[in-house]
Amino acid sequence: MNIHRETAPPVLPVKDIHWIQPEEIRFPNGNKMYLVRDDALDAIRLDILFPGGAWDEPKPLVCHTTIDTLREGTPSRDAATIAEIFDYYGSYINTYSTRDYAGISLYALTRYAREVLEILEDIVYNPVFPDKEIQTYLKKQQQSFLIESEKVTYQSMSAFLEEVFGPSHPYGRRILPAHYDEITSEDLKAFHLESLLGNTCYFILAGNVTDPLIKDIQKRFGKESNCRKSSERQITSSFPVVAHAVKRHVPRDKAVQSAITVGKRTITRNHEDFPALSFVNMILGGYFGSRLMKNIREEKGYTYGIYSVIQPLRYDAHFSIRTETGTEVCRPALEEIYRELRRLKEQPPTEEEINLVKNYLMGSLLQSLDGALARADMIKRLTTTDTPLNYPERFANAIHTITPEKIRIITEKYFDPDSFIEVVAGSC
Amino acid sequence: MIQYASFTLKNGLRVLVNPAPQTPLVAVNILYGVGARDEDPGMTGFAHLFEHLMFGGSRHIPEFDRPLQFAGGENNAFTNNDFTNYYITIPGDNLETALWLESDRMLEPDFSQQTLDVQKQVVIEEYKQRYLNQPYGDVWLLLRPLAYKKHPYRWPTIGKDISHIEQATLAQVKDFFYSHYAPNNAFMALSGNITLEKAEKMTGKWFEDIPARKIKNRNLPGEPQQQKKATLHVERKVPANAIYMAFHMGPRLSGAFYTADLISDILSNGKSSRLYQYLVQELRLFSDIDAYILGSIDPGLFVISGTLMGGTSMESAEQAIFDMLESLKTEPVKERELTKVKNRLESTWVFSMDSILNKAMNLSYFEYLGDASMINTEMKKYHRVTPADILAEAQNIFREENLSVLYYHAI
Fold this sequence. Notes:
heterodimer, A: alpha+beta, Cytochrome Bc1 Complex, Chain A, domain 1, 2 domains, six-stranded mixed β-sheet, five-stranded mixed β-sheet, globular, B: alpha+beta, 11 strands
């Protein structure tokens, strides 16, 4: 066959992102459940999302500890029994918590979904937080935390968040080893009752969704008495958000690499500029072909990887460029980071670069919506940041129609190099 | 059942196709039958360094990533001791872009001194980031040579000494490519929005004219039977003591492999597992503990690793693990416990096979092992394992003279 290897095959841009807004069911108690159907999967995942997070905590770690120890016992089942039943049916329970919310995911084979839902109901509504188990749990967590906090990436990121939001803000507050000693079962019981059960929560059911299954979940989690009224949180401005540029150094002995974080506060997903901001972030450091990666990894070899990331939270957001470099090349790497920030304005992307990033972003959007679990993850990201569920379409439209002028405006508005906070953990 | 079709091009390239019309995407996976075990002991880390070089452009195409990104594709790769795996997911409409790129680098990557110099530097930073600058990061640099004396599994994929990477020359790199990278040493799988007809037509178009090459014979030294317990003590600046125990076990294609995998699950898969229940929850000797197998093709390692609670001595930690292993060697596992670990394996498998990329990777991998159809018999092999098999295999593996232990002391 006669082929021309120098010539690229024609490329079709992604037009349809295949986003279908999920079906929505409202329980009698006000809780909402989203359905993401995939009959080909012989399993389900049920997520329960509890808004609240660090905003509702009387002290650090309470939210995280509460959600993570629900399975440590109920009046009728101890921790070992609960673990054995989930494991026996091939089920997995994951709990997670961010500064904005806590959540629990149940993974189950279709044929055993009912058996494990019964246990899930029990641990969500009737946890007893037994003292001995809680203290063991906290000791383990403390030890893992000590290991994690040895890492330069952790040190750099936590100092950065403290600089951006301030040390008392729920997004900027640091975790200290001593915090693990201060948690009691009473804290967890109170938080469970007031925050987890007190707020309206969300359910996302993905996979092999059947009517009997929906009814079963509704029967267990939709009871009138189980949920109090929804409470919309009022965020006051009592937390000072630091807006000025600072440089901070976290000293570290004998680290062969330093972790750099350069960034600032930015806008949330609901802001009209957000899709365009994501676009410019992509160009700068959002993917493997980005300017930062090309320059600092692929041309200079200063690092194994460098990325810039926008982290939209529920009430606020931050943006940061993150990398780890050898200590001897830390300075030059920092200089190149600022050079690339300036270059965004001085050498705006060409039409070719814009089209490349457009196509790439659309492709990766398609990937992030592929499959029931991926779509459920998208719903999770959106509901926990109060973003309307038509967001993927809004995003796709904004990307399709972005112009060089819009890119210029975004660059000026959000990427002024003089406004950035710089944190380095390790010698530099 | 995962439905797939397969065919072989004239140059020996094996192609597996799994149509999944409900997704707009297609996953393209190419596994090359070369890993760190194929390296010369004086030139370790080459398979992994080479993986980096495969992204530096190819004979007719100056850049790999850019055209792929322009087509909306994502890609990455990994290297392990047994093979090197490259993968792409891309909108089905643009599949041809992926095949164009993959075929050109299979034909010949662009061997430039500039790319080599930069990627050597990147790999050295990767080495520092992953192996030197993380607490416990150097464990595998220490444990592999403790457990293996002859077999090339004695070094990790990053290499046994970073100087091997620093000294790599362009001539060595080229030689490595032509002795290992070839259509007749590659296993390609396509999963997602594709039909068999389209796959035949397009792979024929882009791959058929790549010549078959003579692959360097794999003649690996077998690992001699270990005669006595091997130990190593190290001191590091970490927050807690840790212990790493490695026992030799059977190869990937033996029945013993499946039994050993289930034993590792009985010990540590899930919160109801034995090590977690007794050593973490009840006795509170460890803050975390894990048992797992490496899953390598040649005879592998069964590993138990644990982080000790402050106040637990190394001796009592090790003894407690031995006690747990002893009960596996003396008492047959109950049916319910065995069913439990089988159910968990099944559920992990069901969720993982929901992804087109995982399906493509597994099809390539099983074809490399000898037959892609193993993707549909894998679960049955686990189901066949009996309590008597578990008992016999535990007695076979958990012997003191079959053990290497790394004691990692916090200072």
